């Protein structure tokens, strides 16, 4: 029997159109054909289980071979095969009508969208024509008493179908590679494509006499069957270049209301926010799809590594649709919840272990809290604050820790922090001397995090240790009386103003304790925060603060013994300058010429 015919579709000659549309990702033809072969094999296995196929299953491998001379790539399977009638139905009708529909719907879309949609309309098989000028199918159905069929098509709407001889059950798809697709005749190229897309397919894939895949990757197994070593080994397989072991992992496994399996690893990341993105691989039934998991995984978890496998993610639709897709939103929420639960249980079950990892996971947690309200609600119980003595506290523990000492006269709890304990050492030490605790907030996310905590925590404010004099940072009821008269205070301020001679330094006199420093230089908390935010790119509306020059408050302590000397001494200005320079020195602000002058003056005074 031989039959030639025309495939009944509306658009004439869709081949050139498809080929043109899908220019950027021709390599996926192999993914599509190999997954068809795998599907056919699995269907046969299911039929055997159901007792509908009683013959020998034999060795169920999929073989990919390439013959460079003959310009042919062959994908062979021992799956259920197709009769001539089935080829007409599944290939001529389904595969081709899918292609037609594709052309009609996606004519005007951009390249990225087109790349994504190839499978959507059963375009799988048709993708062969992106690289082949002619495609042949040799197939023998598993059904007894059926004849083998041979189909040839050049991508146009006409085809030839005839009976043939084929010894073994299953299908061979033979591609006659087009001149412009020579690259796919290179075995090395084919191997790369196969390892990229087919590494975890459930049926063995043989290429050049070697099986290139793992048929049961660990995410398809039950967590109870797996040891820590299995998870670590798999991580190493996924990221052979990685030096570090993952910190911990989450095995995802849900089948309702959507289907999702996978393993997410927390890598060691430390500081780099931009580091290792796009490390999560997305699979659909063990076929690799993409490592662009944006929208499927919440933004703050993009730093995680691992695999997600879900047939429910509509991979073939455009980006904007993906964001709006209900299944994707649910998956997103699910992953966030799973991550929060995992952190929570680590925290509860092994506090020391959790604290040890805090340096690596702290950033995730804070980033998550900042970007996701639901995550904040869970994480507020396991987020940790670190003080300058490297002790870690939960939010509740910390409030309890400082409440007695660090309440101001209005009953607000004042949290003191430093963003650079080394640099602000003088301020930190002074605060500690008063029995205050100082937190370390030295990550670039911390200014934002501080802002968030201030909004969320009741009657709590955050002040950097160098934002004001200690008595002003936490204002207590009792005010220290000034030993100076009004006149003396004005005179004192004038002496300092002349000595400092700098517009950016706002001199004021305050009655501090005689034990405090004679002069303290501080930078207003609000202004400094605005500038910090701006530097880290936060808060779009903060732009206007860029126009403000740096300015500092210089607080002169009226009650310090030195003050009397400054007022009495004919040399007052020199002393004032010296005291001011010492304050600058404590802030690490004394540099260059000023530093040289200071050293000279100190020697003179000595
Ligand atoms: N190797 C094969 N063995 C048996 N049947 C096949 C084989 N390849 C394709 N088919 C049949 O042809 C049909 C069309 O294949 P095609 O790849 O175009 O779409 P699909 O596999 O149904 O969907 P998609 O690939 O888009 O997920 C398949 O559904 C299957 O019935």
UniProtKB/TrEMBL annotation:
One family name in Pfam for this protein: HSP90
InterPro entries associated with the record: HATPase_C_sf (IPR036890), Heat_shock_protein_90_CS (IPR019805), HSP90_C (IPR037196), Hsp90_fam (IPR001404), Hsp90_N (IPR020575), Ribosomal_Su5_D2-typ_SF (IPR020568)
PROSITE patterns hit by this protein: HSP90
Keyword check for Ion transport: no
Keyword ATP-binding: yes
Domain of life the protein comes from: Bacteria
Keyword vocabulary terms for this entry: ATP-binding, Chaperone, Nucleotide-binding
Family: Belongs to the heat shock protein 90 family.
Name of the protein described by the UniProt record: Molecular chaperone HtpG
Organism listed in the record: Hymenobacter jeongseonensis
């Amino acid at each position: 029997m031989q039959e030639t015919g025309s495939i009944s579709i509306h658009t004439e000659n869709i081949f050139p159109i498809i080929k043109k549309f899908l220019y950027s990702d021709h390599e996926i033809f192999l993914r599509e054909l190999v997954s068809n072969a795998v599907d056919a094999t699995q269907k046969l296995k299911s039929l055997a289980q159901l007792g509908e196929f009683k013959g020998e299953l034999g060795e169920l491998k999929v073989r990919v071979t390439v013959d460079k001379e003959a310009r042919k790539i062959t994908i062979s399977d021992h799956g259920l095969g197709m009769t001539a009638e089935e080829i007409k139905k599944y290939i001529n009708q389904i595969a081709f009508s899918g292609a037609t529909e594709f052309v009609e719907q996606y004519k005007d879309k951009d390249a990225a969208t087109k790349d994504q949609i190839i499978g959507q309309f059963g375009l799988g098989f048709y993708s062969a024509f992106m690289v082949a000028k002619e495609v042949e199918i040799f197939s023998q159905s598993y059904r007894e008493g059926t004849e083998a069929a041979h189909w040839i098509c050049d991508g146009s709407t006409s085809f030839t179908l005839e009976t043939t001889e084929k010894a073994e059950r299953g299908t061979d798809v033979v591609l006659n590679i087009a001149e412009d697709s020579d690259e796919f005749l290179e075995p090395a190229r084919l191997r790369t494509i196969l390892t990229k897309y087919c590494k975890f397919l459930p049926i063995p894939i043989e290429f050049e006499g070697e099986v290139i895949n793992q048929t049961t990757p660990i995410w398809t197994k039950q967590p109870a069957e797996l040891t820590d070593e299995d998870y670590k080994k798999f991580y190493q397989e996924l990221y052979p270049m990685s030096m570090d072991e993952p910190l911990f992992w989450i095995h995802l496994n849900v089948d309702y209301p959507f289907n999702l399996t996978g393993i997410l690893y927390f890598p060691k990341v430390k500081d780099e926010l931009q580091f290792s993105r796009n490390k999560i691989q997305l699979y659909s039934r063990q076929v690799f799809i993409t490592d662009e998991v944006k929208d499927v995984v919440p933004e703050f978890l993009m730093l995680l590594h691992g695999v997600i496998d879900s047939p429910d993610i509509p991979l073939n639709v455009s980006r904007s649709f993906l964001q709006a897709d209900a299944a994707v939103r649910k998956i997103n929420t699910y992953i966030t919840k799973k991550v929060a639960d995992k952190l929570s249980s680590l925290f509860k079950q092994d506090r020391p272990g959790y604290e040890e990892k805090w340096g690596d996971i702290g950033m995730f947690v804070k980033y998550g809290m900042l970007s996701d309200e639901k995550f904040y609600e869970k994480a507020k119980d396991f987020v940790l604050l670190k003080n300058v003595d490297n002790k870690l506290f939960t939010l509740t523990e910390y409030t309890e820790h400082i409440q007695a000492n660090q309440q101001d006269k209005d009953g607000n709890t004042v949290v003191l922090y430093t963003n650079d304990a080394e640099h602000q050492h003088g301020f930190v030490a002074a605060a500690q001397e008063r029995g205050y605790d100082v937190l370390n907030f030295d990550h670039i996310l911390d200014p934002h995090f501080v802002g968030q905590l201030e909004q969320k925590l009741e009657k709590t404010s955050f002040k950097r240790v160098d934002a004001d004099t200690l008595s002003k940072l936490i204002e207590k009821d009792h005010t220290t009386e000034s030993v100076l008269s009004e006149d003396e205070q004005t005179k004192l301020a004038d002496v300092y103003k002349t000595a400092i001679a700098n517009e950016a330094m706002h001199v004021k006199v305050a009655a501090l304790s005689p034990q405090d420093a004679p002069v303290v230089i501080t930078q207003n908390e609000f202004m400094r925060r605005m500038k910090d935010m701006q530097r880290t790119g936060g808060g779009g509306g903060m732009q206007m603060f860029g126009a403000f020059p740096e300015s500092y408050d210089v607080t002169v302590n009226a009650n310090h013994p030195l003050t009397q000397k400054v007022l009495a001494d004919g040399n007052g200005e020199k002393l004032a300058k010296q005291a001011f320079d010492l304050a600058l020195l404590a802030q690490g602000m004394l540099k260059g010429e000023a530093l040289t002058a200071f050293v000279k003056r100190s020697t003179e005074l000595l």
